[in-house]
Amino acid sequence: MNTPKVINKVTPTHTFDWYIKWIATVFILAGLVCRATNWHTPLDIMLTFNGTVGWFIVAWLWHDRALMILNAIAAVLLLVTLLNQASV
After folding, report:
1. Alpha helix (H) ranges present in 1-88?
2. What is the pLDDT of residues 24-56, one digit of tens each?
3. pTM of the model
4. Dihedral (CA of 36, 42, 44, 48) sign
């Protein structure tokens, strides 16, 4: 008889990085909602930028190079986009 395998959660909760992770996630999701609904273009870029910076901080705290590279590049590209829109 096969019994279901129980997977225990290993991510700590209510730590400094946990709060940053969830706040950054909310920022990214809010930015994506703004972008999908075409509600406010500069706001979606700012929200998503803040989220990627937050996730970069989490990646740095976790020593996760893949997340650091992904979010550093995303933040730079979003910042360039924001600056280009500001100069138009």
Report:
1. 16-36, 41-62, 65-86
2. 999 999 999 999 998 888 999 999 999 999 999
3. 0.86
4. positive
How big is the CA angle at 45 (ends 44 and 46), to the nearest 5 degrees?
95
Distance (Å, whole) CA 18 – CA 32: 21
Q: At which residue do the structure tokens 């997340």 appear? A: 67
User: Who's near 58: CB < 8 A, 6+ residues apart?
Assistant: 17, 20, 21, 24, 67
Which of 27, 14, 86 has its CA nearest to residue 56? 27
Q: Which bin fits 87, alpha (ψ -120 to 50), beta or left (φ > 0)? A: alpha
